[in-house]
Amino acid sequence: MEPEAQYSLTRPWPGLLALSHGRGFVPVVILFLSGFAYYLLGLVGLHFSHELQGFSAVWIPSGAAFFMVLLGGYRWAVAPLIGMSLVATHLQLPLAMGAGATLGATLEALLPVLLLRTLGFDPRLERIRDVMLFIAMAVVLGPVFTATLGTLGLCYSGMTLQAGLADIWLLWWLGNSVGCLVIAGVLLVLATSVESTATPRCRLFLLSLLGGVALTSMLSVMQLSVGQPTLLLFALVPLIVFAATYCGRQGATLLAFGATVASLMTRHYVPPDVYASHMVGLFSLDVALIWVASFTGLVVASAYSEHGVSAMYARLAERDGLTSLINRATFEQRLTRAIDSARRDGRTQVHALMFIDLDDFKQINDRFGHAVGDRVLRRIARLLMSQVRGRDTVARLGGDEFVILLENCTAGSARQMAERIAVGVRGVAVAVGEGICQVTSSIGVVPIGAGTGSMEEVLAAADGAHYRAKDGGKNRVHDLTMEALPDEG
After folding, report:
1. Which candidate, 446, 189, 247, 235, places its Cα nearest to that of 338?
2. pTM of full prediction above 0.70
3. pLDDT, tens digit, for every residue of 337-372?
4. Closest listed residue to residue 28, CA positions, set 64, 84, 81, 76
5. How many of the other CB atoms lie within 10 Å of CB of 457?
6. Burial track 56-72 (b if 16+ CB lie within 10 A, e otherwise)
7. CB-based contacts of 328: which residues, under 8 Å, 6+ apart?
């Protein structure tokens, strides 16, 4: 059984690729139509070639064929086989050259996909590893087959060569390589961006950059067409990198595609004698820089994507899953640092620790259910965050227990904040059907200063203070920070 790729794709790709599956008349027709589409794209590419060279600056079908084989399965390799045969027939190429180009185009789409699947390639291009695999296998290695087999066929065809074999091989490889990099790159990103949606601001930014890229490409080709050296082409790299930085892989691939289209449309109007006198260098300079800019943009976009994913996992690792507050492990690290700083400060009270426990929370879960209990916990978490200062740390220790580290806080301020929080908790009311679920809290507050013990001892003291609040009748604050008032300075 053919090991086809299974990825989440945007519409209409799943339906289109599914049409080629199974047996019967429809899959055969679809595959033959794909071959004819390859042929039409080849004619478009040839339209932008120059008759003195006979090579397309960008071979568009190479990227489309790789994309279809990668996501649709190996059966789609029929498309370049049929399509390149039609192109060879249309151009009336000698048998040896036509056979070499056809075999090369088929291998160009088939073998990189086989290698990429073996290496666990992810077509979303969100990791640097996947971008480098895509470049190495599809963009660099794949076109080697076409350029090599096509050049060998040309040697055995008896045709008169207008350039050296090395120049012909380079032009052939570059056109197919850029076609795969730009066309397959933008198709892969568009097809796999299931959850990525560009904001209106990002779209406006991309539109302005796209105009700059198109203008840069067109002006640079026009300057080259009169034999003048230009540095405008190098502006493509920072423009595409900007797009990759702010709009990700969508921005990088879209701008590379725009630069390619603008370059092809402009070079169509370059006088024939210009390419005749400059051959490979002038013919391929702008295309080579598009290659470099596209590659750089994809690498930058994947680097930012990996950084964002790493940052997200780091945030998740230090957060409580239900309330999004700091979890116990992270809180204990911050509390340890606060204790160390208080010891260095030398005062009796430098910081304060508040321990908050919801009264009779088990009864809420038993009466209203755990879903209502979770809603209450999230409401309390939002309340606590709204009451503290920016430098304070709110955490959930577990169950219905919360703690707040008040850094650089006097005893009086700690007491006032605890009372304010107790009042706020009493005001929390969660609608349950036709009834209301209300909750109160018992709060213990302890100082952190020069004589404070270990992190475990501070937590135990705060826990004991909250139990004294419960023993006093619940729904109240028991404050140990006021004992530090005479020593504050």
Report:
1. 446
2. no
3. 999 988 888 787 889 999 999 998 888 888 888 888
4. 76
5. 12
6. bbbbbbbbbbbbbbbbb
7. 395, 396, 397, 398
